[in-house]
Design brief:
heterodimer; A: 114 residues; mainly beta; Immunoglobulin-like; 7-stranded mixed beta sheet; 49% strand; B: 113 residues; 6-stranded mixed beta sheet; 5-stranded antiparallel beta sheet; 11 strands; globular
């Protein structure tokens, strides 16, 4: 069974540009989470989908970030326009159910905004 | 507002000895705690967890201890092996938060020969 995959693995863009990150969860996992780790600090929650619905988006930094999960399969996270402080590693995780179910993480996308 | 804290950014331990990683939390509503392990260029991998109704959970070489009154948990790795060299993240969640994990900043463990 394939794990969580993320694309691209690394993205370098200039301030003001747009970037779209993609996450493919484990097949059959209804729950999909986005997290971000900035400059070696803690991994911070961004948002949570249950199927195609946003269950919790309390961690989204501001309205420059837009996440979608059309059809309840893969998810995209778009940053428009990107700012320097958006640099970091963006992780996606999925689980069969929410709550105390194990979340399986993808390898992350390293975003560098110059 | 960081509710999960790992105050030791790094730990060096000799192969065969015990590694002890510590984690403190401030939110008394957390009821489930996890440890994740992360290698470079990979995502975090689940290691072990503990419910707030327990004070100890063991899985092979890994044991997690929970002290609710002190809002403190620790991970013991015995014996430490070179493959254990990684960053270890402590995480916590609440039953009513739909699995939202709150992480500490991580502890880099280096196991030396």
């Amino acid at each position: 069974e394939a794990g969580v995959t993320q694309f691209p693995s690394h993205s370098v863009i200039e301030k003001g540009q747009t970037v779209t990150l993609r996450c493919d969860p484990i097949s059959g996992h209804d729950n999909l989470y986005w997290y971000r780790r900035v400059m070696g600090k803690e991994i911070k929650f961004l948002l949570h989908f249950v199927k195609e619905s946003k269950q919790d988006e309390s961690g989204m930094p501001n309205n420059r970030f837009l996440a979608e999960r059309t059809g309840g399969t893969y998810s995209t996270l778009k940053v428009q326009p990107a700012e320097l402080e958006d640099s970091g590693v963006y992780f996606c995780a999925s689980s069969q159910a929410s709550g105390q179910n194990t979340q399986y993480f993808g390898p992350g996308t390293r975003l560098t905004v110059l | 507002d960081q509710q999960v804290k790992q105050n030791s950014p790094s730990l060096s331990v000799q192969e065969g000895r015990i590694s002890i990683l510590n984690c403190d939390y401030t939110n008394s509503m957390f009821d489930y705690f996890l440890w994740y392990k992360k290698y470079p260029a990979e995502g975090p991998t689940f290691l072990i967890s503990i419910s707030s109704i327990k004070d100890k959970n063991e899985d092979g070489r890994f044991t997690v201890f929970l002290n609710k009154s002190a809002k403190h948990l620790s991970l013991h790795i015995v014996p430490s092996q070179p493959g254990d060299s990684a960053v270890y993240f402590c995480a916590a969640t609440r039953d009513d938060s739909w699995g939202k994990l709150q992480f500490g900043a991580g502890t880099q463990v280096v196991v030396t020969p």
